Amino acid sequence: MMTNIAAAKKSSPILIAAAWAVVVLPTAWGLNYTIQNALKIFAKPAVVTAPVSSSTAK
């Protein structure tokens, strides 16, 4: 049997946008969180030097 396409119920564009937001927003947050933490692996470590005290530099 063939169904009548014109009689098919259409989804609300607002409902579709809301459904995409439910998927995209957490995905974007998770991707951002992952990238920020992954960049820590490749970050150049800070050079820590001991301060020179005036009593030892004579």
Proportion of residues in helical segments = 40-55%
Q: Which term fits the overall shape?
A: rod-shaped
Beta-strand share of residues:
under 5%
Termini gap: 99 Å
Rounded mean pLDDT is: 86
Class computed from helices, strands and strand pairing: mainly alpha
Q: How many DSSP E strands?
A: 0
- Which residues form runs of ≥5 with pLDDT under 50? none
H/E series, N to C? H
Description:
Helix content is 52%, strand content 0%. With 58 residues, the protein is an all-alpha fold.
Features:
single chain; 58 residues; mainly alpha; 1 helix; rod-shaped
Fold topology:
Blueprint: H1 13-42
Summarize the structure.
The chain is mostly helical and 58 residues long. It has one helix and no strands.
